[in-house]
Task: structure prediction
Amino acid sequence: MDIADCYIKVRHRTEAICEPLQIEDYVVQPVVDVSPPKWHIGHTTWFFETFILKPYFAEYQEFDPNYNYVFNSYYETVGNRVIRTDRGNLSRPTVIDIKRYRKYVDDAMLNFIACGDISDDVKELLILGFNHEEQHQELLLTDIKFILGNNPLFPAYSKDYAAPKFHKTDAPFIKVDEGVYEIGSEGEGFSFDNELNRHKVYLNAFEISPDLVTNAEYLEFINDGGYHDFRHWHAAGWDWVNTNKAEAPMYWHNIEGEWHDYTYHGLQPVHMHDAVTHISYYEAYAYASWKGMRLPTEFEWEAAAKQFNWGLRWEWTESAYLPYPGFAKAPGAIGEYNGKFMVGQKVLRGASEVTSPNHSRITYRNFFQPELRWQFTGIRLAK
Ligand SMILES: [Fe+2]
Result:
């Protein structure tokens, strides 16, 4: 596929995700981590405008100079911006304005690509832009789920959404020998800077489950009083449980004694054979402790991943999000993409049912704060 086709495809997919929304759904920001859909569609457009069109396309005329303030996410290099908590307070620009902005930038981008005079550096930025938009496609889906799933009417997102089936193998734990393993991207094809450099890690012998933990298994933890037994929790996790009165995964609701789960199809009885999801790192850790096991480190996960199925849930690991040996930030604003977040977060490995197609790989490092659970997170045990 040539670059223009890749560009069109990635931009269309974002619009297709928004297709089932009503205009009001585009605007709200129920919590700080969840951005309004209209902000995502503006911000992904701003990314191409800011990092490609303005610096590299001489004939480009900026759509609206005020949009930099509205759609810059976190790039200090690029100037001031709306504080993150205020994204949902903006009734303007309207959804129609932002769609016009998308069209304007898309036309300019396709003209720019058609000129054919694209250096390798700009090509790299384009591919980063595609991957950036794919990351926001996943955020759009999880943010939409949060917006609708926290509405008292529990509206469905789309009847057409098809959740992939989870097949438990029930096979024994996979045994992995002690030894030195190579971790990180080999540098073939696209990777984010946080997957570099490839380096050696010594691992003790370990065992890892071929399966994700199911809802039925997680319910045993709940029914055994797991949320009321401090022994399974970190101090911060125990504070989190008590402050939030947590007693189940995020979208679970106990209705007259039966657990229900908010899904893209609306509220449904919990499907016991599905992989548990929307749990915090604290909950993943507590569940593993209750089982007398632990979570894998990100290095164990990567060393073993070819031996099990992954891709349905972002799997919490025991690893802190840190730079690999030799990690280097790119010069300029793009250097702010990953490196400045390497403090106070846990690594998640794999991918999820709402990760964009072809966006996953074994070396991919996702990362979130331990209390967050609006992504499709899950648990794989190790010992
Ligand atoms: Fe972004």
Q: What stands out?
A: Residues 43, 73, 132, 136 surround fe (ii) ion (CB under 6 Å). The CA atoms of residues 14 and 189 lie 23 Å apart. The mean pLDDT is 96. The longest strand covers residues 314-320.
